[in-house]
Write a structure and sequence with these properties.
alpha+beta, disordered C terminus, membrane, single chain
Length: about 1250
């Protein structure tokens, strides 16, 4: 009975498992169970028969398709007909297109399917599980196999999988296995999942269902009686194939990689013992400086020196010169003022031609800098980097939910991955895509298609050809696809599948043309390209895309030169984009919280914040004017308030500042040096600080000085000017020379700022010596006549007091402040604390750099770094075999080729900052030329005979070559670059490479090409800068290697380029640039101070030391207050040097010329007399205006103008009015002996004696 049962079972199944027999044979037609297949799903007929001996053409085709099973003609048995082999060849061609770069992988992949289709022992290694009746063309009905179970040993399946798992797709930098593992992608792919996808007819590629059962070698449990495991020999990826295919390259096979030395370990932090080395060195340096000062004091000379004599001679000369000058200016005010006005207008008229630079690239990157030269080369050959317009949307309050998927199991979906929000995003996307506007440049209505980046149809794009990357693109932006629902049965379970199943599949297999669900939809975007998940969603971990916290919507536009008419068209489209997005953000029904940015946003933000904060600046200047007008007045009695006030003088001082700035701007506009918004905001503030100080010193000195008997008003003004003008000259000349030298900077913004500031300060001094002196003379006439300031015709009878007006500050500083500051205990504490703080400030300034909060969303949610191109220049022979091997990374290429080195760098992303190897047009061109890919073909008949035939047309392929000749390389390269990739030939270069290769139009020589890689996500300027530095190091290494290739020009170069490099290159040199600029600013302060003080080197050194300490402490406080070191703060630091001169130099000169007998008394006198004027003129002028800037909305103003200027002013005041007097009391000269001798000599005139006596009395 048992034997009878077995016989009956064999009859019913129609097949046994025994060697030499087939389970099916011959092509039976199309599988009726497969719908929407991407290739014809041809299936075999069920036919239990002996294996067939293949001969003739049948054998030749068999040997071509399945060489591993061929044993010679007449000696080879097989279970596949000629028609089956043709269908198998067509099916394998699709996979070979991406696997052929690794011959052993392609061989193993073919081996699996050849074994199940053609093995002579086919019946032993598979069991038919499903059949269907198919009517033949002749009307006969045959039983076709539409499903079977294949038995494969894990040793063969695992080895095959290992040989293929690292094969790359050069165009994307990703793994080919990701396209062959369905929903699992490359990361989660296993041998079982890999084969399961090959046998899933729902993927649009497999003609029938195959259930691969993978079992360990020797295991029989689970196998039908007589069945055996297929355990063929799988090649390792570093082995050659039996047909002569070379071992796979390192790019595709880890076993082929040479021994690459590990990079050296990162340097340890610089430590001295257990302390930070930098801090220890700072302490040592400042200790040495302190000891040198002590030694210098001990060597204080007691005799008259040449310096003493030179000092007096210099002061006499300058005093006499300015006294004469001031008398003349005061005597003819009505002539001086119109002349000054004419001169100012002559300069200022140039403002009509002023050019404002708002492009950040032109502001911060020097025209001849390396980054700008590389950008120019890139833009000239490849068009500018495409323009990005992007939204990153979140829905933080939306709860997550779980979805029990039929195919993927239970999945956690974040709140933002919900259908209603995707629909809302799609509606927003479609609204943006529909933007239309009238373009004067095109003289017609323009839309997105006129400026969009359309990689697969660049010549005549439609809206659907525009590259828009978003989650709705997985559904081809179709509401019908998004709403599609269908029942699906899997393993006996029937459930509904919908958009969620399609989404899960597509984010894991974005290159798929058909998902494996019953929906059967493509994952490709409507413009024909893939949407990689990091371009659609963000804020996920470990590739769990369903838990993403953000949706990303990106519109890519072509970029154009600013002179191109389409540049304005693109900007106008972006204006419409911003208007829609801003309107959408204001809509209360919006369910998203999002950030957005257009390509024009950075430039727009600079302009917008400037316009919005202009009123704040105007209020700031108004507050300063009000303070100056009130503070300059002499208020002896209420009845004389309108007489003694100085509103007009204060207004005149402000006008002098404004005229000097206008003259500077007009002059440079005249000669073609562009300005910037930073200049408009910083230079007036700087000149106002300098000008106000000089005004206060001059006016207060005039008010405190008694007119001598018989002295005319003009002579009085001239004499006062002779006393204070040398000090004003000292500061103004120091600052002007400082800024002129600062123009040596390579940064355009710093250079133009320095030029504008230098001339403005110089013009301010000239106008103060002319126009302001004349204005003060007119005001003195009015005041002497007791006429009111506003109503000049009204006089007041109350006479002017006979005693000079010392104001409020001078008595306070004489009586309380100077004695308290300069007592023995205070002096020691001040010096010790200031030197300690300064050392800490040097240590603190080594902290991190600045990155705008504007990009916070980008850094938080974007999961990939910026793309970077490695660009080759002219001079390399790509057409030679040696040249190809030196560049490519596929089979037969050099182990240390161009693209191989980039691949090695990605092995250490934390060091190289490269995440994905470069896409290589050379590699894809080689694969495209390979006959196995069926891409490179020509017409063999008809009117186009001999011409290129695209891959989507049927034609007999011409044999290609792995390494083309020079003629073949040049002939087929244009065809490759214009061939649109499709399912038949995914290696076509259109879209990926059509703009990556630039050839000379006459010779055909490749004069530029680029290879695109990706950086790791970069989150701050320190990482951006390090990425630039490492990319340049790598490119230099590649350049040196490629120059060794025969025929390569020695000026050939490889360099990296991405759009951010021009912004961050400044950080490579910002420290050196900053030290240079500050250094050249400090040098003239020392030189000018020494010269104008009569070669008084000690005073010049102490003056310089205090300014250095202010600058160093400013950088230290910048770190503590989040004001980081970049080009904008460098401008402010240069400004800080100029303002520091105002705080320091006046007081230093006053100390140097004092005739008090001891250093402490001289410091007290200088602090009281000059310190009060500096406090009133600089500190109290700047502070009210700076405090108003705290109301500004712009972050740029808040950080770099409010915070930094407040720091500069407070530190300048603290050092100039606290530290410097104490420093001078310790380390200044005891006295200028020659000046004392001069004033005490018999030859002294009576007038000078009275002046000396009154000075002593006043101080006492």
């Amino acid at each position: 009975m048992f034997l009878l049962y077995l016989c009956l079972l064999q009859v019913l199944t129609g097949a046994q498992h025994e060697p030499g027999y087939c389970s099916f044979y011959e092509d039976c037609g199309l599988n009726p169970a497969v719908e929407g297949a991407l290739i014809p799903p041809r299936v075999p007929c069920k036919d239990y028969r002996k294996a067939v001996n293949v001969t003739g053409d049948h054998y030749e085709l068999f040997k071509s398709v399945c060489p591993m099973l061929a044993h010679g003609e007449g000696k080879t048995l097989a279970c596949c007909s000629f028609r089956q082999l043709t269908a198998l060849q067509s099916s394998l061609t699709l996979s070979k297109a991406v696997l052929i770069r690794c011959p052993s992988c392609a061989d193993n992949f073919a081996h699996i399917h050849c074994a199940t289709t053609c093995s002579p022992n086919q019946s032993q290694i598979l069991k038919i599980t499903k059949t269907a009746n198919i009517t033949q063309p002749a009307g006969m009905v045959k039983e076709a196999v539409v499903g079977y179970e294949a038995y494969v040993s894990t040793s063969f399946s695992d080895a095959s999988f290992r040989s293929c798992k690292n094969v790359r797709i050069p165009a994307t930098g990703g793994y080919a296995i990701a396209t062959m593992c369905g929903r699992y992608g490359a990361t989660l792919c296993t041998p079982q999942r890999w084969l399961d996808f090959q046998g899933d007819s729902s993927n649009g590629l497999a003609p029938l269902d195959i259930n691969f059962k993978l079992l360990p070698d020797g295991q029989t449990a689970g196998l039908p009686p007589g069945a055996v495991l297929f355990a063929g020999t799988a090649l390792n990826c570093n082995e050659t194939t039996p047909t002569g295919g070379e071992a796979c390259s390192c790019q595709d096979c880890e076993q082929s990689c040479p021994a690459v030395p590990q990079p050296p370990p990162l340097p340890e932090p610089f430590m001295i013992g257990r302390l930070d080395g930098v801090l220890v060195i700072c302490i040592i340096v400042f200790s040495c400086i302190f000891l040198l000062l002590i030694c210098y004091v001990i060597l204080d000379p007691k005799d008259v020196t040449c310096s003493d004599k030179a000092s007096l001679a210099t002061q006499e000369f300058l005093g006499s010169l300015f006294q004469t000058w001031g008398t003349i200016m005061a005597r003819y005010p009505l002539i001086v003022l119109p002349v000054c006005l004419v001169v100012v207008l002559a300069f200022a008229v140039g403002i009509k031609d002023i050019e404002l630079t708002t492009d950040p690239v032109q502001l911060w990157s020097a025209p001849q800098s390396r980054a700008m030269r590389e950008k120019a080369f890139h833009d000239a050959n490849f068009d500018p980097f495409y323009r990005t317009n992007q939204l990153i949307l979140t829905a933080p309050d939306r709860p997550s939910h779980y979805y029990d998927s039929l195919l993927f199991g239970e999945q956690n979906f974040s709140g933002i991955i919900s259908k209603d929000l995707i629909i809302e995003l799609l509606e927003l996307q479609q609204k943006i895509q529909a933007i239309e506007f009238w373009s004067d440049e095109l003289n017609r209505t323009a839309s997105l298609k006129d400026v969009c980046y359309a990689p697969l149809n660049p010549d005549n794009p439609s809206l659907t050809d525009c590259a828009v990357n978003s989650l709705p693109q997985y559904f081809q932006n179709s509401m019908d696809n998004l709403n599609a629902q269908v029942n699906m049965t899997e393993l006996g379970v029937t459930k509904e599948v919908d958009w969620r199943d399609h989404f899960i599949y597509c984010v894991n297999s974005p290159l798929s043309f058909k998902d494996i669900t019953a929906l059967g939809m493509s994952c490709m975007a409507d413009y024909g390209g893939p949407v990689f998940p990091f371009l659609a969603v963000g804020g996920y971990e470990n590739e769990e895309y369903t838990t993403a916290e953000a949706l990303i919507l990106t519109f890519s536009l072509n970029n154009y030169a600013r002179t191109d008419v389409k540049f304005k068209v693109a900007e106008e489209w972006e204006r419409g984009f911003l208007e829609i997005v801003q309107e959408y953000q204001k809509n209360p029904n919006t369910n998203f919280t999002f950030a957005y940015m257009a390509e024009r946003s950075l430039e727009d933000e600079i302009n917008r914040t400037t316009a919005e904060d202009i009123p704040i600046f105007m209020i700031s200047y108004a507050v300063i004017f009000l303070y100056i007008a009130v503070a300059l007045g002499e208020y002896s009695s209420c009845k004389r308030i309108l007489v003694d006030s100085k509103f007009l003088v204060g207004l005149g001082g402000i006008l002098v500042v404004g005229c000097s700035v206008m003259a500077s701007m007009g002059f440079y506009a005249w000669i073609g040096i562009p300005s910037s918004l930073v200049i408009l905001q910083v230079v007036p503030f700087l000149v106002l600080a300098v000008g106000a100080d000089n005004i206060f010193i001059f006016v207060l000195e005039y008010q405190r000085d008694m007119r001598r008997t018989g002295e005319k008003r003009e002579e009085h003004i001239g004499r006062v000017l002779g006393n204070v003008a040398p000090s004003m000259l000292l500061c103004s000349l120091s600052e002007s020379v400082c800024f002129f030298l600062g123009a040596l900077s390579t940064m355009p913004a710093v250079k133009s700022f320095a030029l504008y500031a230098a001339l403005a300060v110089l013009m301010d001094f000239i106008l103060q010596m002319t126009a302001f002196v004349a204005l003060l003379s007119l005001d003195a006439r009015r005041q002497d006549a007791n006429r009111c300031e506003i109503a000049c015709c009204v006089t007041v009878k109350t006479p002017h007091p006979s005693e000079p007006n010392q104001g409020v500050l001078l008595p306070l500083m004489k009586k309380y402040y100077a004695p308290a500051l300069l007592n023995p205990v205070s002096r020691v504490l001040v010096v010790r604390s200031y030197f300690t703080n300064n050392g800490i400030s040097v240590f603190l300034q080594l902290e991190d750099s600045y990155m705008l909060d504007y990009f916070a969303y980008l850094y938080k949610y974007f999961e990939v770094g910026v793309p970077t191109y490695f660009i080759t220049t002219k001079g390399f022979n790509f057409t030679s075999e040696e040249g190809i091997n030196a560049v490519c990374s596929s089979v037969g290429c050099d182990q240390f080729s161009f693209t191989q080195k980039l691949r090695y760098a990605t092995e250490y992303p934390e060091r190289s900052y490269l995440a994905i190897p470069a896409s290589s047009w050379v590699d894809d061109y080689i694969d495209w030329l390979n006959p196995g890919s069926k891409c490179c073909r020509i017409y063999t008949a008809g009117p186009n005979k001999g011409e290129f035939c695209p891959a989507n047309e049927s034609n007999i392929p011409q044999n290609g070559v792995l390494r083309p000749s020079v003629e073949e390389f040049n002939r087929f390269l244009p065809d490759f670059l214009s061939n649109r990739p499709d399912l038949q030939c995914p290696k076509g270069g259109l879209g990926a490479y059509d703009k990556a290769v630039v050839r000379d139009k006459e010779t055909g020589e490749i004069i530029a090409s680029r290879f695109m890689a990706y950086h790791t996500p970069l989150v701050n300027s320190q990482e951006f800068t390090a990425a630039l530095e490492k990319a340049r190091e790598l490119a230099h290494n590649i350049t040196m290697t490629m120059r060794n290739v025969t025929g390569t020009s020695q000026d050939f170069e490889v360099f990296p380029y991405t759009v951010t490099y021009v912004y961050y290159e400044q950080y490579l040199t910002i420290v050196n640039e900053g030290l240079f600029n500050i250094g050249v600013c400090l040098l003239p302060t020392f030189v000018v101070c020494c010269i104008l003080l009569g070669m008084d080197f000690r005073s010049g050194f102490l003056n310089l030391l205090t300014i250095v300490m202010i600058t160093v402490d400013t950088v230290g406080v910048m770190t503590l207050w989040g004001i980081d070191f970049n080009a904008v703060s460098l401008i402010n630091l240069v400004t800080a040097v100029g303002i520091s001169v105002e705080f320091v130099s006046h007081l230093t000169r006053s100390f140097a010329l004092s005739i008090r007998p001891t250093k402490v008394e001289r410091a007290k006198e200088a602090t009281a007399n000059m310190g009060s004027a500096v406090f009133a003129g600089v500190a109290m002028t700047n502070l009210p205006g700076i405090v108003v800037l705290a109301l500004a909305k712009a972050q740029l103003i808040q950080i770099f103008f409010f915070r930094l200027n407040l720091v500069i002013t407070l530190l300048g005041m603290a050092h100039g009015l606290i530290f410097l007097p104490v420093l001078l009391s310790f380390f200044g000269f005891s006295s200028n002996i020659y000046i004392l001798l001069y004033f005490s000599s018999i030859s002294i005139t009576f007038i000078n004696f009275i002046q000396l006596q009154q000075t002593i009395v006043n101080f006492s």
